[in-house]
Amino acid sequence: MSSESASPLVIPRRRLRLAGIVAVLVVIGVIAAGIGIRASDASHLKTWTDDQAVPTVNIIQPVREAKGPTLNLPSRLEAFTSAPIFARVSGYVKSWKVDIGGTVKSGQLLAEIETPEVDQQLLQARADLASAKANASLANTTAKRWQAMLGSDSVSKQEVDERTGDLAAKNALVDAAQANVDRLVATKAFARILAPFDGVVTARTTDIGQLVNAGSGGVGQELFAVSDVRTLRVYVQVPQNYAPDVQAGKTANLTVPEYPGQTFTAKVLATAGSVNAQSGTTLVQLLVDNSKGKLLPGGFANIQFSLPVQADAVRVPASALVFDSRGLVVATLGGDNHVHFKKVTISRDLGDAVEIGSGLSADDRVIDTPPDGLVDGDSVQVAVTAKKAAAHG
């Protein structure tokens, strides 16, 4: 009886002990797993913290230009030859023959001037010439007679010399009178205003009956202006640093506001060979064909020069530049992912991009928008694949 009653109690105790052991093992496993997870998280956190301590940067590649830059400058157009026409004789305008815009040939009559005063002076000069010739003729006859009487000792040598000298004086008066007549004849010829060369009348500032005075400037009044516009001169001020690239024989594109989208070809004729101290530019003269008459002298034009490619010039975004106590520098990334600052010079500012003239090569890896506090030798990590600077240009 006693053995049969004890066996049911023994089995539950063993089961309870086994369950307790399993429970303890489970608790120990949970604790161990928790400790492992926390250790892993701590390791990941440390790695993440270390990674965050290393700056992340974007890398761009400098671009070497395939073609040279263009230089756009304002300019002015001038007639190849332009002459203001003034009166060379005073008088009243009798008539004018050609108005503004008229095409004229060399020697063509533009206007006529009435010159009553010159006409009277010419009549007086001719009368003086006739009187001088008569006196010279008489002096010549007298001198010959006295020369003949000298052979018979009827007159003295002194008297003959006096008559000969008088003849020379009278001949000189004839020459002077003749010169005065010739001067007035030439002055009278200026009463006909003629075109000095083939061209176009670009100004007429006189009319019939107007009194004009001989001379130019403040003395006389400009009557006409004649211009040769078949070829135009183009004058442009080129900055000193670009002057060596703009030489005689070089061509440029010319545009004017009245013909949008149309381009004319101009050729450099000459440069001033000096720099204006006030503007820092040199004057360049070009020629442009205007046989079709589209371009107007005196007008504004835009000149575009194609400049040569600079051998060492590369282009980077302006955001890659750093200006500090070292001057102008660019942060580059070496093969060991360490930062190296390079001092550079700018040859051309393109706005959102710059052309670097020296200090940088096309093989350098440039850090775009370098973080503040970045110094030489810092280790960084690259955020994106290197991209061409052209995408920023």
Keywords:
four-stranded mixed sheet, 393 residues, 22 strands, six-stranded antiparallel beta barrel, conserved putative lor/sdh protein from methanococcus maripaludis s2 fold, Helix Hairpins, single chain
Tell me the layout of helices and strands.
Blueprint: H1 2-53, E1 56-61, E2 70-86, E3 91-96, E4 103-104, E5 109-114, H2 116-150, H3 157-189, E6 192-194, E7 199-204, E8 211-212, E9 222-239, E10 251-255, E11 264-271, E12 281-289, E13 300-306, E14 314-317, E15 321-324, E16 327-333, E17 339-343, E18 345-349, E19 353-358, E20 366-368, E21 381-382, E22 387-388
Parallel strand pairs: 1-21, 1-22
Antiparallel strand pairs: 1-20, 2-9, 2-13, 3-5, 3-8, 4-7, 5-6, 7-9, 9-12, 10-11, 10-13, 11-12, 14-19, 15-16, 16-17, 18-19
Helix pairs in contact: 2-3
Kindly state the mean pLDDT as a whole number? 84
Largest sheet: 6 strands, antiparallel, barrel
Oligomeric description of these chains: single chain
Q: Total helix count?
A: 3
Low-confidence stretches: 1-6, 385-393
Strands of the widest sheet, in order across it, are 2-9-12-11-10-13
Strand proportion: 25-35%
Q: Helicity level, as a percent range?
A: 25-40%
CATH-defined fold name of one domain:
conserved putative lor/sdh protein from methanococcus maripaludis s2 fold
Radius of gyration: 51 Å
Overall body shape: rod-shaped
Termini gap: 104 Å
Order of helices and strands: HEEEEEHHEEEEEEEEEEEEEEEEE
Count of distinct strands:
22
| Structural class by SSE content | alpha+beta
- For the record, the CATH class of one domain is Mainly Beta
Instruction: Based on the coordinates given, report the CATH architecture of one domain.
Output: Beta Barrel
